Batch of 3 targets.
Target 1
Amino acid sequence: MFNIQLKEVHIGQEIDKRREELNMSKSEFGRLIGVPQQHVNRIFEKVSIDTAKLIKISRILDFNFFSLYCDIPNNVYAYMAAVALGDGNAMNNIGDAALASIIEQQRQKIEGMEENRTLLDDQINGLKDQISQFKSQLDDKNELITIYKQRVNQ
């Protein structure tokens, strides 16, 4: 099957780290998982945790904590995440927070590209103005040459 290397993970610390990433208070976290606030710190201190509780926490924090225990190929990861989280959708293993982050990164790229486009449009308009001035100067030069030739030929 797979030669999967399992990792030692302090799951409580990982849960707390994710909670902090989401700027979620300990009391809100406790309320969402159905644990009194005084027991929340105990979860963060745990090296291991009940699977059913970890599934619930994974859903609440929108993160697949099971993936921390091993490195596996992405195609298998998607299937296992779907199975572990119980939604059965192997194609949707990116959490809402991760997806929001990707969307924000893409939005920033687009904004940068739009700024570059605006600068390039300004440069193009400046070059068009210069071309117009050069054409006008060339027309003036041609007119002067014509006048000079007329005077010389008289």
Target 2
Amino acid sequence: MIRTLSLGIPYDASTAVLLGALFLLGIFPGPELFRYDPDIAGGIFLAYLVDNVALLVLGLTLAPVFGAVLKLRETWLLRGVLLLSVKGTYSLQHSVFDMWVILVFRLIGYLMRRGGFSLAPVIIGLILGPVLENNLRRSLLISRDGLAIFVERSFSVTIPAIAGLLLACIIWTANSTGRK
């Protein structure tokens, strides 16, 4: 969490979801958060402190209840989670379309898991995608020269080149280990 707040970089799926929620609220984590909004940063750390104390108290008192829930069969537990997620989604906008969206994304997630794909990059991409799109649109509007803004400075060329080299190395390594 410290890395996410101080650098603005999520390091797993749960912090990516939290980072997306902060973006939606207009709070942009990073070094500027501590400089321009110290009250928000302090409030977040205070909330985590109170949360840890409350979690300790509730965890110690409700441990037998959680143990009883773990004794349920997994199929019943998953059905309960699915029921609560569908009910919660329907209660937001009273839309049957939202429940179909849940079904489609559940199927996509199932197929990805069967295929051996990690779901964390998809979640991070869904959260950070709109931010990337807004910044791309903003830079294209500022440049007025089209895509030339991305190749006119050495830094603008170096970072994508390094990313492309790393991607090529990953693909090459995966292919070479797959052949052995």
Target 3
Amino acid sequence: MNHAQPEPRKPAASRRPVKIVFLDIDGTLLPDGGDHVSEPTRRAVAAAIGRGIRVVPCTGRSTLGVLPTAEQLGLGTGSMFIASNGAVTAELTSKRSRPFQVVRQWLFDPWPALTVAMAVEPQVAMAVERVGVGWRVNKPFPASRLRGLQHIVDERVLWSQHTTRAVVHAPGIAAYAPQIEGTGCTATPHGSNWIDLTKPGLSKASEADALRRRWGIHPDDTAAIGDGINDRALLAQVRHGFAMGGAPQVVKDAANYITGTLDHHGAAAALDTLTLSTRQPGSQASESTPTEGMPTEGMPAESTPAVTRVVVAGMRAAATETVAR
């Protein structure tokens, strides 16, 4: 484990072997709610793919919000992405009418959470995701915040079906996240006025780990780049976690390295330090074998095998490095 003091380091000076890198989108690849990925970042992603590294967008955005970014990154048919804070894992296809195929999704009952949100803020705006289509909403949302069609419905219709993800939006609503999460969901605040709601125990980290296991990739051959509160568990879980320079301190504390800000193409600088691992498939020496019949895919991060938890704890203790482009 590297315990050097934080200081600028040229990418070529420290190559980090991986087989997969998970990329947050908003605040990492492009501005929140934006659509344009910078040329340096696109080049860095293309170079990583060219080295044989799997690049997987891992975001709070819906599936429809991921597609424009995936196209700019040059991700082709068969590439995977994780959307809606882990609620949906999908694979890109070559079909214009159906550009992705859902590999798996996690549903939950939004009714308890939405009723509590209405109780604490009667004017709350609420939305329930319809994967690949859009949203059922009780009032219009800005198009830049919710991608896809918005169908205004009565509240009783809004929570009549289980869903992958729901959203509540109102001034100061994030202060009530603990009460809303207490109804039996995962409540992920974004700023003070927005909360994403998903299945209890679900996160980017849990689904990233499930995808890693699906491909038989060693835990030490993983990396992630992110800037948000919903990236903390993922950055702590992977072997090489990069926090963006503009990330909150709690996010930086979860990472191994701090890269540049979005304006300084920090994601590109981090990607440039990654090289393809030569570890042979099936080499799982540092990872315990799950109990036979145990449903390892989709397990909450807190439920990962004991040896993996030790590895994560050791990573958190590692000194933070600064990655300079």
